[in-house]
Amino acid sequence: MRAYSSLSHLECSRTSKTYDADVVQGTSEVGAPLLARYDLERVASTVTREEIAGRGPDLWRYHEVLPVREAGNVVTLGEGMTPLLDLPAYGKQVGVPGLKMKDEGLIPTGAFKARGAAVGVSRAAELGVTGIAMPTNGNAGAAWSIYAARAGIRSLIAMPVDAPEITRTECVVSGAELYLVDGLIGDAGKLIAAAVAGRGGYQDVSTLKEPYRIEGKKTMGYEIVEQLGWRTPDVILYPTGGGGVGIIGIYKALLEMRELGWLTGDLPRLVAVQSTGCAPIVEAFHAGKAESTAFPDAYTIAFGITVPKALGDFLVLAAVRATNGTAIAVTDEELLAAQAAVARAEGAFVCPEGAACFRGRGTATRVQLAGRGRKRRRSQHRQWPEIPRHGDSRRAHSSGRRPDTVTTLTFVLTS
Q1: Mean per-residue pLDDT for 169-198?
Q2: pTM score over 0.70
Q3: Which pairs count as long-range contacts for 266-269, CB under 8 Å and 24+ apart, including other chains?
């Protein structure tokens, strides 16, 4: 009987040392992300692209290259296989007649974060984890708390007080233990690390501190290629913030498909798009550095990509360089103008993070860092709650702030 997953082992992204994939793992002994590896030779000999085409329209159609061992352990809300939409009117305006948008706003919880949550929660529950804990800028925490509820496990979430109201609501309604922090995602991460250390059964699922979120997000790469008739686009622009997991995952998928023989020829050029108010990847790329440095006083209206220093920055930079891509930054004013222009031309109301990619297409040959060091619009004196070791009934309440749009995208250029 064919195995549901071909998961072989985990591998340190820095040293290539192997780790057991069938116990709960965090980062490697050198503090680097662990990457899931598969028996791709076996997959290539037993699975065809034609077979995949006949499967259900969700990300689990690629289950042989996902980490969940048994089909019965899959936790799903129908995530995946989002449309790859033609944007002819806007494409004509910007001189890209083959412009397409991968619309992740139609996925459960309204953001691509559901991909990582579905696979991450499924694998965590399969390995016996009884609670997940994470810092978040909003969407990821909402997604993981929803999928944790679906799996029947607990969730502990810490997010900046400036995170979008709608994401708070999703956490609260799903029963998450939620804490708000007057600071950035890194500050929330410190709280989570301290709390997990004192709680049994919880796993810290912060970005790239567990191996399987990236596996869910890599399915965007598989889908894009399959939706294009098993061809690659010329360029993929991606909003890059919380660890760059999306762009890392897409690159991982491309390499796997090439090894499987499902993909031939050159890989698409990958473009990391950030805001000038928080552009550590852009600065590192153009400085020729292998890693970024923490971006000071980060602020941008594109809250989801406000990550001053990412654990996986070296993987993002490696992927961009390996594909002859680039990294670009746009101002908040530019991305908001692009958001309005796309809505008028195509009827697509994308989030600020996604809108950065549309503006990014027009600034691909230049880098703007005029917004560097912009001050945050809150007190510089930060006070954080202490998270109790065993949890309590504290919950965040509505602040009356406007809900943000939640549509996210991968911006695809095809010839």
Answers
A1: 94
A2: yes
A3: 266/232, 267/232, 267/322, 267/323, 268/232, 268/233, 268/234, 268/235, 268/236, 268/323, 269/234, 269/235, 269/236, 269/323, 269/324, 269/325, 269/326
